[in-house]
Amino acid sequence: MRLVVDLNKCQGYAQCAFLAPDVFAMHGEESLVYNPRAEEEQRERLARAVAACPVQAITADGLDGAKESASQSALGASDGH
């Protein structure tokens, strides 16, 4: 999953770091650092973090249909695909 944060929009509210600490972190009081290639296991937390951003600075490719994709991935893994 690919993440993009518009650092010009980001105001350092840190809601993303609170909701998905394995992906987002604050460096100092105002500087956000993040992993642009988040793991699939973080999908639900990332969806919450994207939705919680007060300035809508975060976009994520591949978050649509999170529950369906996760269940399909689990089924695919169990049958050898």
TrEMBL record:
List, separated by semicolons, the cofactors it needs: [3Fe-4S] cluster
Gene3D superfamilies in the cross-refs:
3.30.70.20
Q: Does the keyword Membrane apply?
A: no
Q: InterPro entries in the record, alphabetically?
A: 3Fe4S_ferredoxin, Fe-S_cluster_ET
- Pfam family for this entry, one: Fer4_13
Q: Does the keyword Metal-binding apply?
A: yes
Which UniProt keywords are present, listed alphabetically?
Answer: 3Fe-4S, Electron transport, Iron, Iron-sulfur, Metal-binding, Transport
User: What PANTHER family does the entry give?
Assistant: FERREDOXIN (PTHR36923:SF3)
Q: What does this protein do?
A: Ferredoxins are iron-sulfur proteins that transfer electrons in a wide variety of metabolic reactions.
Kindly provide the name given to this protein in its UniProt entry: Ferredoxin
- Organism listed in the record: Streptomyces sp. 900105245
